[in-house]
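#lab-general

N.A. 3:47 PM
ok so I finally got the sequence cleaned up, no stray characters, all 272 residues accounted for. can someone with queue access submit it? mine expired

B.Y. 3:52 PM
send it over

N.A. 3:53 PM
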Amino acid sequence: MKFNFKTSYIVIAVVVLIVLLLFSGRMFLIIEAGERGVVFRPYTTGLDKEHVYGEGFHIIAPWNDMYIYNVREQQREETMDVLDKNGLSINTDITVRFNPIYDKIGYLHEQFGVNYINVLVVPEVRSAVRQVAGRYTAEEIYSTKRAEVEQTIKDETRKVLEENHINMRALLIRSINLPEQIKGAIESKLKQEQEALAYEFRLQREESEAERRRIEAEGIANYNRIINASLTDKILQQRGIEATIQLSESPNSKVVVIGSGEDGLPLILGNN
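B.Y. 4:20 PM
back already:
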C-alpha cells in the first residue's frame, strides 16, 4: 500500500508538472511598465471591465485570457485629402498623440478590441478633419482662419475620443497643401490686401498730420489775435522802456537818446 501511495503521489506530481509546463505561458503573466491588462473568463463571468491589472507579476487560470494594452502615449500620422466648403480638394498631413484611459481599458476592449487604433482613433480623426474642413473655404483653411480650423478639429476630435475612453494629448496639422494655381491666387490676394491696408494706414497717418498742423496753425493765429488785441500804445511804450533799461544795464557801451524815437520811445545808439 505504501508503494501504491508513493506511486500515486509521483503520478500526480508528474501530471501537475506537465500541466504547469503546458499552461505556464497562460497562467503566469508579467505586465510591463506602461501596460495594463483585463481578464476574460469565458466559462464564468466573461469580461471583467471593472478590474484592470497593473504592472507586475500575475497568475490567472489557464482557461482565462488576459488582454494587455499599451497605455503609453502613442502617435499616428495621417495624410488625407479633404474637401473645402466649395468642393476644392485640399491635402493635409495630420499627427495625433493619444493614449487609452487607464481605468477604462475593459470598456475600450469590449467596444473596439485591441485593434482600437485602426477601428476608432484613425477613423474619428479623419472624420473630424473632413467635417471641419467642409465648413471653411480653402483660403480660410490655408491662411485667414487656420488657427480657428485647427482648434475646432482638436476640440471635436478630443470630445469624441474621450467619449470612447481615449485621452487625446495633441493633434497637429503639419501641413496644408493646395493646388499651385489656387495657392498662388490666394497668396496674390493676401499680398494685395496687405498693400491696401498699408496704403490706408499711410493715408490715415497723413490725414492725422494735416489735422495736427491745422490745429496748430489755428492756435497760433488765435494767439496772435489775442496778443494784437492787447497791445495798446501805452503797453508798447512800456515794453520799449523796459527793453531800453535792460540794454542800458549791459556792459556794452551805447548812447541812449530819450524820447527821440517814434511815439516818444528811446533810441539806442552806438552799440559796440
